[in-house]
Request: fold
Amino acid sequence: MRPEAEGDSEGEESEYFPTEEEEEEEDDEVEGAEADLSGDGTDYELKPLPKGGKRQKKVPVQEIDDDFFPSSGEEAEAASVGEGGGGGRKVGRYRDDGDEDYYKQRLSPKMPRTLSLHEITDLLETDDSIEASAIVIQPPENATAPVSDEESGDEEGGTINNLPGSLLHTAAYLIQDGSDAESDSDDPSYAPKDDSPDEVPSTFTVQQPPPSRRRKMTKILCKWKKADLTVQPVAGRVTAPPNDFFTVMRTPTEILELFLDDEVIELIVKYSNLYACSKGVHLGLTSSEFKCFLGIIFLSGYVSVPRRRMFWEQRTDVHNVLVSAAMRRDRFETIFSNLHVADNANLDPVDKFSKLRPLISKLNERCMKFVPNETYFSFDEFMVPYFGRHGCKQFIRGKPIRFGYKFWCGATCLGYICWFQPYQGKNPNTKHEEYGVGASLVLQFSEALTEAHPGQYHFVFNNFFTSIALLDKLSSMGHQATGTVRKDHIDKVPLESDVALKKKERGTFDYRIDGKGNIVCRWNDNSVVTVASSGAGIHPLCLVSRYSQKLKKKIQVQQPNMIKVYNQFMGGVGRADENIDKYRASIRGKKWYSSPLLFCFELVLQNAWQLHKTYDEKPVDFLEFRRRVVCHYLETHGHPPEPGQKGRPQKRNIDSRYDGINHVIVKQGKQTRCAECHKNTTFRCEKCDVALHVKCSVDYHTE
Reply:
């Protein structure tokens, strides 16, 4: 601590300001390379002079042994290490004797200060010239426990994006790799290397960083002119599938098993049995039994009951003979509670959907393999309903499904989904991150499509994804794109404003083209919409029918060709969403992954129907296609209960028992227990379907 000066009291802050004479004396002292400011023999290291700035004050250097940097468990307190230990690493920082503000004002207003961990990470993200090997963090203040040196988390598995606030605001120091002094001499935060023969990384206090800013693409300034885009349409896929690809596959089940083949089924069976074994349950699931289980899941999409156990009830209003004869109720519950598609012991801690990743990867391969021969592909989001708690759960206002998981999907214009990925926030493994979240996903989809089927394609997407940089990138890959665009995604295009276009006649439009083959058009319809494209222009113009509120009749409105292309090919993901939502399985689980897992099965069933419509001469609708798959799975792979096995007795309808209508006592072929006196009888009530003596009929049917 700094020695207390006269007039200072405990708890008061120093307000000392140096005079001009004292500042001149300090400048004279700086000229000495071995100046001793503290009088205790401490060496000082002179910071290099930054460009266009004032000379920095000398900073004390403390020797630190190599053992100061432990792998875990030791405190990173650079100031507390004793002197000596030659050959150790050097820490350049101002001398902290208790009053930090005093020394900042006493030495220089440009004096380097200790930064927080959050500021250092922002500096590293914004300045690529700084190369660091490690960050030393001082122990944070623990406000919730008396222990102050408690570790904040796992040092091996944690990430910089998941640190608590107390750790982000604590003091930290940057360890920089040893480098050439001449190349880094212009950096104001550079600390020169020691002359010792052993080169070790140097620790230094970083200068005040510039304001934090996001890493963005460099804005491309283009010269826009009013002209139409003339471009030839892309060729599409290079190699088309053979015409006899589906000639031997006629049944809906055979088309579905193109996606759910033996490899995928064995994956599910393997990890389900493994998970059940870890809980001490002998599941013994087989491929045939899983297909029977999947048939019940598909059946619940068009035969919905409030509780899934009602499928096995014996009461005539809900009893389902096909389900109860195929699988026992308790067996279905056991399989559903142990259903898994990954090994819980080998999950990726970074991937939030690692429990589903093996299945998603295999289904993506098969969906991409059997994609129809198309040129135009749409890209959009897909919501899977979920109302529980999970970090990836989304809320989107105004959508039909507001709560649930978001999936990014690439599809054909008719709704065949050929690529899908779940949204999980920021992912360190994301490719093309510099283009933004939406554009990076489109580029990943285009790369996967081109890798599976080489060719040139036209992609259509909405304003969440569209930007001029994305159009340029796709053009460099040989593709074309069209999409609605937001105002902040196009840089100063000289188009008429929305207000000006709104005042003009309906169907009015304005457009501009840049020098790289991109055109932007703003069109006045019900509202003003802006579309950017690299594969479609204004002409040929077409006429569309619109209802005029002023004239009270339908009128013809001009529409640019690029608007027509967008409307024609954009709705692929929406069509798939509509098809799946019509007959979505009503059986759901309480675990967070049950909804996206069942969505994967629904997706491949919808894709199988799309292939059936494409290649079959007499296609059926989606409901009939689904029913044929269900009947085949339950009738072929079902296991009827063994003779003699009886379930619990079902409750009788007490309302019809006492109505006094049509209770006829008839003869039955064998003796059974009377429902009233519990003695053997050969008679029964035909309406109530219970054994009953003639003499007991009145008592039984009277309340």
In short: The two ends are 93 Å apart (CA to CA). The CA atoms of residues 450 and 456 lie 8 Å apart. DSSP finds 19 helices and 23 strands in the chain.
